[in-house]
Each structure stands twice: as structure tokens, then as C-alpha cells.
């Protein structure tokens, strides 16, 4: 049976702590929590379940948002209507990035931020992320556009950074000419 996750609110000081590296093997409890996060994110992107369980749509989640300051991120990316790709990366690091920058046109959101925040965050259009899967195997993910933004957003959580920290207070929005918007 599906049980909604308790996600910390932006006011919780635990979201500002730099998370520690995970050691392997990870516990059965963590593996169960990862699966619950995948279910939560998947259901939040399917309108029927979003309404049924009163979920806010979300694509990614980091363990600090669950009150656990360890370096684990989960991203559920809808690649086609009702078709999802799941990414679980433990101890993720961005090892390369494009020079090209993008921003989400409407601005980013966050499951820990329960309010509208006006502004756009400049992010790399493409990143390569290295880390480990749940079994401790080294993995490498190349991400572009929305997926790249999601990886950068979730990795920020591991470093105690919320997306609105990256909004330039002197220039909250960018024109199409200044940046390629997604």
C-alpha cells in the first residue's frame, strides 16, 4: 500500500546541512526508502494518483528532504506518456558540464518549498554525473535539459543549498535572447 513521504519544509534547518558520504553496503531500510521515494515521485506525476493521494508533482528528491543527511538522490523522469526512467545515485558528483546554460522558463520548484518563488536559476544544459547504485557499483549518467536541471537541483540539496539561493536578486528572470529557456 502506498504511503506518502514526510518531506521536510524549507524552514527545517536540517535542509541546510552538508550531507555526508554514504558507506556501503546500504541498509535494507535505505533501500526501502529509495523505493518509497520512487513510488512517491512516480505517483506525483500521474494525475490520477496525484489527486488520489494529494501529492505535489515532483521529479526528484534528495535524502536530506527526508531528514537524512546522506548523499543519496532519486530522480524519476517521465520520458514518454506514462513511461518513467528512475535514477538512484549515491554519492553523486558532477564530473563535467556544458558551457551552455539553461533555465526552467516558469522557474524551478521544490517539494520542500511550499510557495511560489519568482525567478529563474541558471543551470548547465548538460552534465555528466558519477556515483554509485544501490549495490555500490560505479555508475555514470549523462543528462541534458530538464534531467540535467534535476540532477543539479538534487545535488544542491546534498550541499545544503535550496534552488532559490541561486536566484540572482538583481536579475530574477532572463529573456530568450539571454538564455535558452526550457
Radius of gyration equals: 16 Å
Please list the strands of the largest sheet in the order they lie side by side: 1-2-3-6-7
State which percent range the strand residues make up: 25-35%
What structural category characterises the helix and strand content? Answer: alpha+beta
Brief overview:
Helix content is 20%, strand content 26%. It has 182 residues and is an alpha+beta fold. The strands form two sheets. Strands 1-2-3-6-7 form a five-stranded antiparallel β-sheet. It has a three-stranded mixed β-sheet with strand order 5-4-8, covered by helices on one side.
Descriptive notes:
There is one protein chain. A hairpin with a 2-residue loop joins strand 2 and strand 3 (83-97). The strands form 2 sheets. Strands 1-2-3-6-7 form a 5-stranded antiparallel beta sheet. It is an alpha+beta fold and 182 residues long. 20% of the residues lie in helices and 26% in strands. 30% of the residues are buried.
Features of this protein?
182 residues, 20% helix, three-stranded mixed β-sheet, five-stranded antiparallel β-sheet, single chain, globular
Architecture blueprint of SSEs:
Blueprint lengths: L27 H17 L2 H6 L7 E3 L9 E9 L2 E15 L3 E3 L19 E2 L1 E7 L5 E7 H14 L21 E2 L1
